[in-house]
Write a structure and sequence with these properties.
Structural class: mainly alpha
CATH architecture of the largest domain: Orthogonal Bundle
Radius of gyration: 26 Å
Number of strands: 8
CATH class of the largest domain: Mainly Alpha
Distance between the termini: 73 Å
Shape: globular
Number of domains: 2
Strand content: 5-15%
Strand order of the largest sheet: 1-2-3
Number of helices: 19
CATH superfamily of the largest domain: Intergrase catalytic core
Helix content: 40-55%
Length: 444
Amino acid sequence: MASLQQKGNGWYCQFLHHGKRHTFAVGSVAPEEAKAKAAQVDYLLLRLRQRLIELPPGVGIVEFVRNDGRPPAIAAVAEGEPKALTLVSFRDRYLDTHRESLEPRTIEGMGLLFKHLLGALGERFPIRELKLANLQGYVDARAKAKGMGGKRLSAATIRKEVVTLRTAWNWGAKMGLVEGRFPYDGLRYPKMVEKPPFMTRAEIERLVAAGGLTSPQVAELWHALYLKADEMEEALEHVRRHANHPWIHAMACTAAYTGARRSELMRMRVSDVDFAGRTVLIREKKRVRGKHTTRRVPLTGRLAGVLREYLEGHPGGNVLFCHAGEVGRSKKRSRTTGHRGDAGRPGTAAARLATVHRREEPPLGMLTEDEAHDHLRRALSGSRWSVIRGWHVWRHSFVSACASKGVDQRLLQGWCGHMTAEVAARYAHLYPSVQADALGDVFG
């Protein structure tokens, strides 16, 4: 259902379409008029779901419902006037078409790319008139922009953004929305900087202690961290003792002993753990385009023990790692909602409680990415393991630990699934001490 929010004197309408939340401004109108607009949005979305109407080519869902199902572009066509396909309409059509076939994180990344494009070219930019000069201006502007940690965006990131737009263009050409080749011949990028190889904690600490590194460079080094086997066990034990929920330690152990990605861990089902067959089934989305595939990783005795203990208190349902329904002080899973913490928060307790109401207990289901990241960060906070940047460190550590023991690269590829050639090259190393011992055996 469409919902309304009042900010200042204006109203905003929110609704879900294909699992994504959209918002548009209704304006400074009376409450009755705002409610009528929300009802109209619900009606249009219902007719779209029932396939009684269709979203016209080149028209975004927000533009469609905001204009009561007849946006200006449609009216212009009805009157025989040529329609200029805008960048924002092209974006909405492309994302809506691919929303069900791609991972939410991929759709989120595409949306971020188009957000940058809209900022550079404008929402009303006619996409059919895109030229090399427009793309070069975009690349030059992005090369000067700052990303996470205040560092400049890498050439690899900018190239990925342009490739995403090229993919959207090629799709639009097949749909008849644009014509001709994507105009990127002759496009120039800034020089690429190779990412550092994955390193142990001791290596990173020595480089940081040597000095001369900026904060973004230090942060990049910690993103390349992998833990040695004994460090991994110590970090997992810390998570076990400080985790606020049982699934956190079990999920971290599964990541450390299988090399699974965070998104793959979140999709795992209880039935994917085969204790009798001593395997764990990993559900993939990256290995084969347009197809959900799986791979199997051996279930070690240590991981089997952790998962058996965890499943004894599992809250139910078929999702392996999940919350137990109600979670206090959670934005999504607390028993009440409507608490206000913004600048317009009422001064009296009675006025504050007036906006609070009880809600139904959230159903058991998949964790969100934010929940997984936040709870791991909380478990590690304040310890020597707070340098761990996220769930990917377990995957790095798994591959590095196996490589240090001489595990065949083909086995590693089968256990870890899809990885780019660049990432595979960063993984292709042993512990520094093992490398030194190997060279010492040759030359003494």
